[in-house]
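Re: your question about Lymphocyte activation gene 3 protein

S., sorry for the slow reply, the queue was backed up all week. Below is exactly what I fed in.
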Amino acid sequence: MKPRVSVQDSALRNGNFSLRINPVRSEDAGLYEAQVTHNTEVRSCQVELGVITVTLSPPSPVVENEPLLLSCNSSHRANLVETRWFHNGRLVPTSGTFCSSHGALSILRPAMSDAGSWRCQLRYSDNEIISATYNLRILGFDGPPNPVVYAAAGSAAD
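Result:
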């Protein structure tokens, strides 16, 4: 896993044996064990790392009015019960333009207003709730629906 993994050598003397993984990948999910030996004493602990991913199809950036699919997947082993989507902190009603199905959200005609922070929230049969965020960028025209620009003769117009 090198060079994505590090241990803070300076923290070891204070009893901090933390492992840092940056960036985390889907395949990093699983059980990790730390084992420390000091004199004749052996200490160990186990930590399970769960990973959640949000993917975009087609890949970013998305073009305005072209359909897209945001998918949310987790390494959690229980059955998925509910998926909720939030756009800029607000719950998205899944009807009309937005269709949600088993961890995925389809946006049939994305507009510039759909750009920003999207968060999926997965709830499992064991009541575990896991969420992740994706920052969606959309290429398009961000202006009035029927743009008309007036400029004086002899001046510049943008």
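The chain has one helix and 14 strands. The first strand starts at residue 5 and ends at 7.

Happy to talk it through on Thursday.
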